[in-house]
Amino acid sequence: MSDNTPFGWLPMDPATAAALAGNLPHPFSAAAAHGVVYYLNLPQPLATVSTATAAAVVARQQRQNEEEDAAGVRMVHLLLTSAGAIQAGDHSTAQDSLTQARSILAGLPTSTGIGRIARHFVDALAQRISPASAAALPPPPPPVLADLHNHFYNAGPYLKFAFSTANKAILDAFRGCDRVHVVDLGIMQGHQWPSLIHAFSRRHGGPPHLRITGVGATASGDVLAEVGRRLRQFASSLDVPFTFREVRVDALDGIPGWMLGVVPGEALAINSVLQLHRLLAEDADDTAAIDAVLRLVTSLQPRVFTVVEQEADHNRPALLERFTNALFHYASMFDSMEAVMMGHRLRGGLAGGFGVVTRALAEALLRAEILDVVCGEGSARVERHEPMVRWRERLARAGLAQVLFGPDEARHAAAQLALATRMMVAGGRSAGYGIVECDGALALAWHGRALYAATAWRVATRWWAAAGNAVRDEGGSGRNGSSGGSSNGRGDWASFV
User: Fold this and answer.
1) pLDDT tens, 416-455?
2) DSSP per residue over 117-148, as a string?
3) The domain 151-315+383-472+480-495 is classified under which CATH number: 3.40.50.2000, 3.40.50.150, 3.30.390.10, 3.30.70.1450?
């Protein structure tokens, strides 16, 4: 891509990348040191004020930033002291540190910067010290998270990165197949699949017959049915033969294989975006639910198993370690999200109350995660994010082999992310978004810190042979031109995004 293009993704030189490497969790730090970090190259905003006025504004802003930075350092120290005291059982010291933190927080803006993230961790520690104080906190998110995920999708490129990277792996695995089946272990509102359907509609030789099985919560009401209706309508508008089926379950580890409707002769892909970490809590028999799901995946022999998870380390038993990791991870999340919101405001894209609602509900989703990471212990904790290196070990033990992402996939992810952020971000701050490629995995990063990691997997041939099973041929033999659903009219792409 030429230097004069308004939006471009450029690899960093190894020296610059190495300077950022300390902010990346292992093993992404090693990747950065070898110069495989790709950053968005955006034009800087033009100056519109006089030099003298600009200098005064810069000086005033610098003083304010220095004051907030000093308060932020003190705030972080107090929060960590409080968390450590809770871990040691010293609730008096924990409460005293938290009281001082609240005092500092009162003098900081809570709409941006350290104040915005600190208030959630202050509330989490208060709830941890005295669960009764939860009554004074804002109400928790509603039981059905679909609306929160919808706003989170619009609040930043996080889910767009996850979906586009997984879809690229699925398209590659389905190359040349006429009948294909995708099992989505957490379909939510179906944002991932219009782009896949669109790609199939443009495939040389015509689209395959596509089936999508969407897994959702039993209590999801009519959400799954509505997702299926909209996907059928969109596929019909592009003449892609399509069938959608719902699977409603209370827990992923309780899904029997027959319920997914896998049919011999179809190429199968299984997709999991931000689902597997919730299965890491162990039951009374010390058997993690994740083992049951991975056994199901290997038994179904998919051509590809796509996995996207938070690149974070929040599954440590010690509270202080978990708290520290979460504080810096979510600080990067909120900072990156603020850049998106700022870009919308500069572009005039948040007319009316849309920006306020999107920001508030996207933040509510992250707040719920923070409260769970800090306050939950044992089986009560759901958000058990782990870094890619541990997921790689776990999936390999389950009999899965990694399908490596390379430079081509990294460039594809960077190009897709550039498109996703084109109307999302503006100004120099947005240059912090990047793609990191390391050992066959891709990660979305903000200023060098990996936030989400994507990998692709298949069943290891040696493992399957050792289990005494023959590898099934899932290649199609002819395309069925029938279409699932009878919706008429052209599908509305905007309704999905």
Assistant:
1) 888 777 655 444 445 689 999 988 999 999 988 999 999 9
2) HHHHHHHHHHHHH-GGGGGGSPPPPPS--HHH
3) 3.40.50.150
